[in-house]
Amino acid sequence: MVNYLYNDGAIDVVTYAHIGKYAENVYWNKASGLLDQMACAVGGLITIDFKNPAAPAVEQVDFDFGAQNHSLIIVNTGKGHADLSEDYSSIPLEMRKVAGCFGKEVCAEITEEELIENLAAVRQQAGDRSVMRALHFFEENKRVESMVAALRAGDFDTFLKGITASGNSSWKWLQNCYTTADVQEQGISVALALTELFIGTKGRGACRVHGGGFAGVIMAMLPNDLVDEYIAYIEKAIGAGNAYRMSIRPYGAVCVNELLK
Length: 261
Hints:
Elements: H1 2-6, H2 13-27, H3 35-42, E1 46-49, E2 57-60, E3 70-76, H4 85-100, H5 112-117, H6 119-126, H7 128-152, H8 156-174, H9 187-202, E4 206-210, E5 217-223, H10 224-238, E6 243-246, H11 256-260
Helix pairs in contact: 2-3, 4-7, 6-7, 7-8, 9-10
């Protein structure tokens, strides 16, 4: 709105994302990056390289999810993110500790091989959780590349396997499925466990923590013929009205009047 009402549409989507990041960093005290902001600003299915954060490289992926006979389900696990700023901030801070062991600012400036070769010293200096999160970073980047390649090749099964692998790494390596401030509150973990049990009995689908983690929502990608059964199953366990069928809209932050011209 600020762009089209007061700036003649001159603000680009990267600037949108940076403004959103600044608002979260400064006014919410959350050390978020640019991922969610870029996804919302650009719209559609995209892949983003953040090695140059001032000007992320964004590519749109032309793939029709609707043609795969699958639905994206978002499950609200019952707790918001309002008091989790410290948990969110710990992820980039700890990975910067790892990079700092090599005289670098971020992990994108080092390699996984360098980390493994110097593991003992990095563990001592940065800590084990920092190391685990850095390893997740390197492996997740590889997964993104393989998942994008799979979509471009029309290989949806490989994409779903990538979602599962990514989710497992988030849970075990990145460790963002619950806060250590209260280990008895694990809504994300419970919802993931139940969903994995469901998928295991059906032999189809994928799930993972969604968004920033620690609390909030998970996602499930399920064949359409299983969606109603899954929603009834998960809502019986965690409460009615907490599972939502979603779609990935092709538009990001846009002026509707401009689209109608």
